[in-house]
Amino acid sequence: MKHKIILAFLVVALVALPFTFSACAPKEVVPIKIGAPIPLTGAYAADGEEMLNGITMAVDEINRAGGVLGRPLEMIVFDIKELLPEDLTSAADKLILLDKVDAVITGYGDTGADLAAFGQYDVPYFHSDTTRICKTLVREHPEYNNCFMLCDDSAPYGWLGFDIITEEIPYECPNHKAAVIYVDYEYNIVSADTFKEEVAKKGWEIVVDEMVPWGVKDWGPILSKIRATEPSIILFANLIPVDGVTFLHQFLEDPTDSIIYMTYFPAIPEFRELAGEAANGVCWITAMGILPTPEAEAWGERYKQRFGKEPAIFGSAGPYDALHMWAAAVERTGDVEDYDAVCAAIRDPDHLYTGLCGTYKFDPEEQYALGGEALVPPTFYQIQNMKHVLIWPTKFAQGEFEVPPWIGS
């Protein structure tokens, strides 16, 4: 009888043993998933590559430092191609409902369709759409309070760019005439409108005002008007590098004494690659750029080592900053799935995050990053010797404005 009891005990013990070991074995750490809706194919693919690189670097650095709340990060990429509303909706539904991501980060995702797609959920969404409509949507739709724009809209491209050229750089314009060429797109229309408003305010005259479609091949008719009126400043508001390069080459066939001032897209490496030496002298602006700080310079070296090239002025740094900013907010709240608390921590003016592009302080009503030298300033550049030289803000200037080689030629 005793042997039966002992045998029964041994059987029970052996059966229970695997469960005991299982209970004692370390649990697998579940990664925190980060959604990355990025344009990897189509017209915006050059920017998309930069966005992907920035998020990749941030994920790797955070993971090497121990992750977030002790958990590693895992990036889930979705190609949003040409930024069509249906692709953005598909991205939001898949990343949030199927992949269960806890944050979504991109460089840009259109002019509001992305907010409609991601704003219906609670997961924090970061973008740099740089559009006025995004500010309006957040103000008018409180449910979009999970959407954060990492910069201001494109209005400063107009009024601020004009003021920098006419008041900040050491150059005297030969006359008070300006030309405006812009694409029929909200982002560019706002730039053109605020430029024209500032021109009128300062007593200047708009002598050429042309709204154009994407992909113009022959700029002859518009250039004829420019050559007849000889404006001191030409604003070229576009998004596609090849459009700007085509215009520039045709302008230089018979140039006027005009400063060529472009919005953002010369930041895309393709612009300098296609333009070559013709790019020298071109001025341009972006709502957020990598500031020349020691931290940013060290980051740039790490970027070159990782990807074999220098980072673009815009594209990689914003998403990189966003992921680090989100990670810091999650660490403060202690719960990655408490999205309301994480968003509140991101908005908290007592815990501002400083990254490659400046210090992020979000407008409480429209949730865009406020501009200014002490925050996330717009940055104004001139291409000199095939390099982007930061001219303004003066605090961060890497050089001085040089008279473009075609002026006076």
Describe the structure.
There is one protein chain. With 409 residues, the chain is α/β, with parallel strands linked by helices. It folds into two domains: 32-153 and 292-360, Rossmann fold (3-Layer(aba) Sandwich), CATH 3.40.50; 155-286 and 378-396, Response regulator (Rossmann fold), CATH 3.40.50.2300. Helices cover 42% and strands 17% of the residues. It has 13 helices and 14 strands. The strands form three sheets. The protein has a seven-stranded mixed β-sheet with strand order 7-6-8-9-10-13-14, with helices on both faces. The protein has a five-stranded parallel β-sheet with strand order 2-1-3-4-5, sandwiched between helices. Helix 9 (241-251) packs parallel to helix 10.
Can I get a quick summary?
The protein is α/β, with parallel strands linked by helices and 409 residues long.
